[in-house]
Amino acid sequence: MNVKHAETSVAATLTEQVLERLETTPDPRVKYIMQSLVAHLHDFVRKVNLSEEEWAQGIDFLTRTGQMCNERRQEFILLSDTLGISMLVDAINHQRGGAATENTVFGPFHVEGSPQLPYGADIRFGVEGELTFVHGKVLSADGQPVAHAQMEVWQVRPDRLYDVQDAQAPHMQLRATFHTREDGSYAFWTVKPVSYPIPADGPVGDMLNACGRHPWRPAHIHFRIRADGYQTLVTHLFAAGDAWLQSDAVFGVKDSLIVAFNPGTAIHPDTHETAALEVEYDFVLAPQMS
Amino acid sequence: MNVKHAETSVAATLTEQVLERLETTPDPRVKYIMQSLVAHLHDFVRKVNLSEEEWAQGIDFLTRTGQMCNERRQEFILLSDTLGISMLVDAINHQRGGAATENTVFGPFHVEGSPQLPYGADIRFGVEGELTFVHGKVLSADGQPVAHAQMEVWQVRPDRLYDVQDAQAPHMQLRATFHTREDGSYAFWTVKPVSYPIPADGPVGDMLNACGRHPWRPAHIHFRIRADGYQTLVTHLFAAGDAWLQSDAVFGVKDSLIVAFNPGTAIHPDTHETAALEVEYDFVLAPQMS
Known about the structure:
The structure is a homodimer.
Chain A: H1 3-21, H2 28-48, H3 52-67, H4 75-82, H5 85-93, E1 121-122, E2 131-140, E3 150-155, E4 175-179, E5 185-191, E6 196-197, H6 203-210, E7 216-217, E8 220-226, E9 233-239, E10 258-259, E11 262-263, E12 277-280, E13 283-285
Parallel strand pairs in A: 1-5, 2-12, 2-13, 9-10
Antiparallel strand pairs in A: 2-5, 3-4, 3-8, 6-7, 8-9, 11-12
């Protein structure tokens, strides 16, 4: 028996042994996931002939990634995003036909309980930037208005940080929760979002660096729209013309989500400024699957 | 185009996109590992049709695993051990033919800088248990003694904890560093090791529980033996007759590493007690590969 054959045989036997040990898993779905995970991880280790030093680097990387997480930072979501896993899970779970607006990645910067604001409110909360008026409707697939839909919006500040990344931020900024009017309409005032690097001072930044990859995301506004009888829509609107649209660090861009920030004409109800920019976009919700 | 086809196609395109993004990786080995990792992880996600809730549970599990790690606890090594990854890496990297002693898992309880002790010393350091005399030789594959080999030993206490798991332990216990004599011989006094559960109060314990698995390891003594011109040997000696030999939680048992703890006859040089048990084992080192 030659050494190569022995190696293959020992390694395969071990995988069988682990899969068999998982046969006792009471929940069939957990069993299926765990057995598939073990099979794929073992295949990976065998395929690349992982060295002990590489294994130790992997353990250290995963440990540092976990320890980087806190209330303001979720490094494992960043890792999932930058490896395309998040968008893959999204693609598997949100395959929509027809007119329905496409999903994209949720990201790590959403906050529960953002301020509840009325139609046409201002979410700047003291942030300075190019005044932008965003408006449109939430519709069903057959073009009917969806009234009272809950729409959460959140976006980055012109200094390239989300409020949650700034421990000095006095309160929530550039995030709010709206509800559509009877005719499905929504509107709010904000600043133009900027392209920004994902946090690159941790293990995920090290990984991007080792792979010769940049950490930039094209400018976008996040939306989560929820309404009874419809699938929840988690998506972004991306600013047309952004330099990073072709190489988003988290693979989130879809052509249908790129919108023009046109010169504005709307007048701000309180400050009477004219909008520098204006975005109009109608979201289309897919029906809840029964 | 039906929905199933669209799903497959979107998901496959995404994987291609991520693999292509990794083409810029400067180091060819890093590139190969990263591309293979992404391909295998994406295959896994697609194969099990991972739901968003399951993805979120995975993120939470990995985060908690990282946050469980500290100077005394390495939860990601435990995870690797309990999924058979550690033994697989070992099998790939330490395929030895002929008489050479087999490797097994390193485990998370080794400590650098254990006390340097002479031939025949006592490593109990105040720990009570069945007095055991362990002795034998370190040999080359052709049966010649290996003089001055460094032999580190470490083992669990009869209370089922390693010294490093006990914040109250006044100093190192049941661990030491020896060097073989001119004739390759080694010897030390200890207590009989016991079978013990791996730490099960963290995420890995939750995983074992969800899989209907127990956390027990059969009783063993750890060894790491290093000598110039030979491959480093990381292994255990397992106590014959242990109830957990067939189902070691970390898949570490190999038949050739199971040894008898026989009734003892040796006399302790300081206390003049007779050994309750005696283990004789000769380790055989494989030559360094050039």
